[in-house]
Amino acid sequence: MSLQRMLKLLYALVLCVSANEDFDWTKNERGSFYYGTFPTGFSWGAGGSAYQTEGAWDKDGKGMSIWDVFAHKKGKIFLNDTADHSCEGYYKFKDDITLMKDMKFNHYRFSISWPRIFPNGIKADHINEKGIKYYDDLINMLLDNNITPIVTLYHWDLPQVLHEKYGGWQNASMVNYFNDFANLCFERFGDRVKYWITFNNPWSSAVEGYETGEHAPGLKLKGTGAYKAAHHIIKAHAKVWHTYDTQWRSKQKGLVGISLLADWGEPVDITNQRDIEAAERYVQFYMGWFATPIFNGDYPQVMKDYIGRKSAQQGLGTSRLPVFSSQEKSYIKGTCDFLGIGHFTTRYITQKNYPSGRGNSYFTDRDLVELVDPRWPDPGSEWLYSVPWGFRRLLNFVKTQYGNPMIYVTENGVSEKVQRCTDLCDEWRMQYFKDYINEMLKALKDGVNVKGYTAWSLLDKFEWDEGFSERFGLFYVDFLNKNKPRYPKASVQYYKRIISSNGFPNQREVESWRRKATETCSSSNQLLAADPLTSHMEMVTEIVVPTVCTLCILLAAVFLMFLLRGRF
Ligand code: NOJ
């Protein structure tokens, strides 16, 4: 070890000892486990979203969404999969609620498909009562089983018509159209739904939908598209919050929040000021982009500075980051009754200058590089490394930046790649849940105001551009079988124990959970191994038998013709 490195380490050590404010960022304790329980009333559940799980993409009057159209284009989704049928949640929601009941969920998070309610996106055109009935039934059955619905209004499935006519979130008219949709949902479901999430992970809608084009609608408007989409989304969120506040809150007494996704960004070198600032920038460009206007009234200063400077260097007269008027700022500020947080992973961040030029994008605007530690477990999705300690840091960041808001964790979980799909003994998922939930418990002890936790996801489902190749479910879904049967993975048992103990009571008990959970999954594994046979049998009866019969009849006819010809 060089002398310079030793000095840095020593400095880091000194920092560890001296920093002792709200949360001790440098006191790593990364390996230590905290035994303890959550406050009474802490809410446990799991989630999913309409396009990812419902199927029935063209049934009962539903209109097309940008995802229906995007997924049907060749080359957009892994193996050209679509969610046309997915888990058939539209037909199987009763079975799914039985699963939730058995796990003793307090809540279930799902989203309403806008084009299932307004097939053309617009209220004046047509309201689809069959779509309303589906959500009515779902909500009623959840409540009958004492499961609180947490309902997302926009989980990425914009009505296709609005994209074709107006350019979707590039256009300011979406603000009013979305508000009409939300207002109808409040009117029809708000007597029973008390937790509303306006947008799910708008970062993805903006960046992947309008900047990189990996997601629907697939536009690649580098350097401008994401900022414009986000600007309209933030305004739409605020408008919907005000609509609820002025028209429904006093009657319905519910809460309206937004769900933001964020990875944690840790400086590569905690003694290097440039890395510290780069890591902060990473989080500000991710979560702060949306959270700062909503809590504090405007975009993070660092975004305004960086994008403004780079735009000027490009020779542009104004910043590529749109500007809120002072009226808009005060209208947007404070429009959040609770903050939903989706969190999966962490990155190490270091500073890197990207020279300004023609090739500016959201990513180069940040002037940083993301790195990972190759020792971090990486069981499924390429981007998802298990780094539990990042979760506690992110939660503490939210607490200090936004005035300790009420938080619901709206997504947290881990996937497996398709090669391991028959493995119901998901050891790594149990470990992931155990460690991440434990970090959340530590954050709670730090004073973070977390009220609930949503495991992502209840079922294996359509994973956007990755198709069905990445499975996040607590329950395995056999997509090859047209009945889409669900099988519990071991993590179901594990999560069930966390829920029934409301945390981690003591070492002896917690250590027995993994063994007990894996005992059950090996027999389910055998069940599953037998299942492809059922799908095979279905194929034999539905395709092979009729085809062979038709061939036999044809052959017999030809043979008969020959015989008859010979005779005359
Ligand atoms: C966030 C998205 O909201 C969700 O739909 C997706 O399944 C997870 N990320 C995992 O990629």
* Spatial order of strands in the largest sheet: 2-3-4-5-6-8-11-13
Distance between the termini: 101 Å
The largest β sheet comes out as: 8 strands, parallel, barrel
Radius of gyration: 26 Å
EC number: 3.2.1.21, 3.2.1.45, 3.2.1.46
Keywords: Glycosidase, Hydrolase, Membrane, Signal, Transmembrane, Transmembrane helix
Enzyme class: hydrolase
Transmembrane segments: 543-564
Would you write up a description of this structure?
- The active site is at 411 (nucleophile).
- It comes from Oncorhynchus kisutch.
- GO terms for molecular function: beta-glucosidase activity; galactosylceramidase activity; glucosylceramidase activity.
- With 568 residues, the chain is of the alpha/beta class.
- Helices cover 48% and strands 13% of the residues.
- The chain contains 18 helices and 17 strands.
- Helix 8 (174-189) runs parallel beside helix 10 (225-252), helix 16 (427-445) packs parallel to helix 17 (490-501) and helix 17 (490-501) runs antiparallel to helix 18 (507-567).
- The longest helix is centred in the C-terminal third of the chain and has 61 residues, at 507-567.
- The protein is globular, with a radius of gyration of 26 Å.
- The structure holds 1-deoxynojirimycin.
- Residues 49, 52, 200-201, 261, 342, 411, 463, 472 line the site of 1-deoxynojirimycin (NOJ).
